């Protein structure tokens, strides 16, 4: 990590983040801080980012400043205009691939500083990958590779997120010490990403029979399924639907706080899987026509089950017994 010490001021350039992108990239922020523990790290975006508002508390201790909607890479003419923020960074990491934006961003480095960018096959970058390098499909792996290029060491996920204390306390009230809680996230953005609900229920009943407490994390789209789940698994808990405790409205940090109370969880390929991963929840994640190879959640311990390994690239191909065995392995 000696190489990392040369960088006192670091700018990370991103195109901007809506909620899904922001949650997905949280492991990258954790890896940055682990690799550059003493540096000042700024996040710079030409557009909006949830790191400046909706999930800003999660950047505490990870980022020093967030510059959103900066006129740097908004238009090609930005290349010729004065810098809208102070430059002089020792290291500028460009996470996007558009060459003209990279040319704009490169101006942020100080004289003698270094620019790291994968745009155009690292053509503009002062730091190059090793000979024969092949860009990984997984976007976060690409980012971790860039950190390793700059420091010479693989980054670690040893920095926990600073979840708001009021949320973690509410999660503790809801899921107090004692029982072993197992999470179930049966929702997904597409119907074909959803493992059949009756199979989630079967796994939950097996967990209940083993003395554990099923916890179903249901979003607004899945809330209508609560009565059927409750009838089949009477001992299940539905924390997201407790509006007396949490109030109304969606808050991804709430799901993360709930995740900190779980011994493990089963999820489809969904945003919830990334929220739980951000909380370092142990995960079994199910994939049908999609794959973990590009967008799988990054967490300290996970098991991914791919439908194609069971005969066909449809999520229904994944059998109950395989999921049950994976979850038990995860919890062992």
Structural summary, described in words:
- With 332 residues, the chain is α/β, with parallel strands linked by helices.
- Helix content is 31%, strand content 16%.
- It has twelve helices and ten strands.
- The strands form two sheets. It has a five-stranded parallel β-sheet, with helices on one face.
- It is elongated, with a radius of gyration of 21 Å.
- The two termini are 34 Å apart.
- The mean pLDDT is 95.
Quick description:
This protein is α/β, with parallel strands linked by helices. It contains 12 helices and 10 strands.
Instruction: Report helical residue fraction.
Output: 25-40%
Distance between the termini: 34 Å
Q: Which outline best applies?
A: elongated
Strand fraction: 15-25%
- State the oligomer: single chain
Strand order of the largest sheet: 3-2-1-4-5
- Specify the biggest β-sheet: 5 strands, parallel
Provide a count of the helices.
12
SSE string: EHHEEEHEHHEHEHHHEHEHEH
Mean pLDDT, to the nearest integer, reads 95
Number of strands: 10
In angstroms, what is the radius of gyration? 21 Å
As residue ranges, the low-confidence spans are none
Give the structural class: alpha/beta
């Amino acid at each position: 990590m000696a190489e990392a010490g040369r960088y006192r001021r670091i700018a990370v350039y991103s195109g901007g983040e809506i909620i899904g992108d922001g949650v997905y990239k949280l492991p990258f922020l954790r890896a940055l801080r682990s690799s550059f523990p003493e540096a000042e790290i700024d996040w710079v975006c030409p557009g909006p980012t949830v790191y400046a508002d909706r999930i800003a508390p999660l950047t505490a201790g990870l980022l020093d400043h967030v510059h959103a909607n900066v006129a740097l890479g908004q238009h090609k003419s930005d290349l010729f205009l004065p810098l809208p923020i102070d430059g002089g960074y020792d290291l500028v990491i460009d996470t996007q691939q558009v060459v003209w934006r990279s040319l704009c961003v490169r101006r942020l480095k100080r004289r003698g500083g270094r620019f790291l960018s994968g745009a155009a096959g690292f053509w503009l970058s002062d730091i190059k990958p090793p000979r024969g390098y092949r860009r990984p499909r997984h976007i976060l792996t690409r980012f971790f590779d860039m950190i390793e290029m700059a420091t010479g060491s693989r980054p670690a996920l040893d920095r926990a997120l600073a979840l708001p204390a009021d949320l973690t306390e509410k999660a503790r009230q809801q899921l107090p010490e004692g029982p072993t809680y197992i999470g179930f996230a049966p929702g997904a953005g597409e119907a074909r990403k959803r493992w059949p609900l009756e199979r989630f229920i079967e796994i939950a009943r097996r967990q209940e029979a083993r003395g554990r407490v099923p916890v179903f994390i249901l979003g607004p789209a899945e809330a209508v399924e609560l009565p059927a789940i409750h009838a089949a698994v009477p001992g299940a808990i539905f924390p997201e639907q407790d509006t007396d405790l949490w109030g109304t409205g969606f808050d991804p940090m709430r799901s993360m706080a709930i995740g900190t109370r779980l011994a493990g969880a089963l999820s489809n390929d969904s945003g919830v899987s990334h929220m739980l991963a951000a909380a370092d929840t142990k995960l079994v994640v199910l994939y049908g026509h999609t794959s973990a190879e590009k967008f799988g959640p990054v967490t300290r311990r996970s098991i991914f089950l791919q439908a194609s390994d069971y005969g066909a690239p449809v999520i229904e191909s994944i059998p109950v017994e395989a999921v049950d065995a994976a979850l038990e392995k995860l919890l062992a």
